[in-house]
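$ run holo --ligand "EPZ" --emit tokens
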Amino acid sequence: MKSGTEKIYQYAIQGGNALTGEVEIGGAKNAALAILAAAIMTDETVTIENMPDVRDTNVLLDAMAGIGVMIERPDRHTVKINGSMVRNVNIEHDLIRKIRASYYLIGALLGKYYEAEVPLPGGCNIGSRPIDQHLKGFRAIGANVRIEHGSIIAKAEKLTGAHIYMDVVSVGATINILMASCMAEGKTIIENAAKEPHVVDVANFLNSMGANIKGAGTDVIRIKGVSSLHGATYSVIPDQIEAGTFMFAAAVTGGDILIKNVIPKHLESISAKLMEIGCQVEEYDDSVRVRRNGKLSNTQIKTLPYPGFPTDMQPQAGVALSLSEGVSTITESIFENRFRYVDEIMKMGANIKVEGNTAIITGVEALSGAHITAPDLRAGAALVLAALAADGVSTIDDIRLIERGYEDFDMKIRQLGGIIEKVTDTKAVRKFRMRSRAV
Ligand code: EPZ
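-- output --
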């Protein structure tokens, strides 16, 4: 780098513009990650469409290639996968630690090869992120599971269906047990199962490969083991959280956005809260329009498993309530450390007090631009919304965390009239600030 400009990786944002226009939502990251892993459970080729081109899916694909999975990418959002040449079940450590969804490879490899060795998952530091329910499910169908040298090692002579009662509603464990049990002998029943749209999407994908899964989307999922799975072509559902993030962007910036390529049913809890705080939400077949007229009002939010208000939308709601009239509360019932955006947004003038798993938010007239850091994926996205609404210029560090789950985030925001640039050195930041002063 030239002297005086060190390498940085930030968003520079000039706040104040209402976001207006149309945005296309991509495939759901949290469905795609599991579907990619499940695709290796057949020796035939699987084609996956509407694949999001984000860091997490790309890291998982690199790790899968590392164990011999054949991968073709005819275009940015289509992946062809063939798992017939998988030569070992020991996944490379350095790649896998970067993402939590690596644990889906255990369910897939165990379900197909009766063994798997995968490093303990990494992911966002939003809480302890235990995997006891995953291991409980694997053991229930007959696998011997141990943790050694930082990896999970699962082995089974054979896999036999079982009746499993989940102690906690867990998206990851529900999906992992679906994969591990879909070719087990006999029936598996998962009680107290997670009902998220991406759980249903993975079940539908496995069924398109010949699995026999019923009840996904309810508390009880029944799986009848089949002898093998075959190739398929499948399109990933739209990303509920990317859609919700742009819905809240309209609320936070006082804009008017048509969010396209969504399933409105998946957004009901988000739409309900936006209407409660004074936004207009119009639902169409595969799009929703969100407009804000006048000031936002306060409300109470508690995050819950689907169909409750999603924990992945909690930071975005926190930003909107920071600009709402009156006092609001947010209770985070899923993860224990998901208020990390609060310290950052306080630098912008927000008035939030966190007590245990509840944030008490006193709305302020306006936020002011500041130099802030993305603490994790969804908190980072929420801070972008805050900066877009704030007076003046903000810079946001560690945006790689945001790019784990948002494809072309800055481009989509620019297309809606937001002033945002990805900058990679301090000279670029200075130029951005000078241009903003000229505005
Ligand atoms: C998935 O994480 C998502 N990640 C998360 O999205 C999302 O926040 C979460 O589901 C809840 O919807 C992916 O799909 C890759 P859980 P997951 O198992 O599966 C406890 C994002 O921003 N638990 O449903 O790890 C756990 O501690 C990410 O895209 C156990 O106690 O979440 C938590 O309190 C962040 N034991 C609760 O259950 C277990 O074995 C829900 O976790 C597993 C989970």
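-- notes --
DSSP finds 14 helices and 25 strands in the chain.
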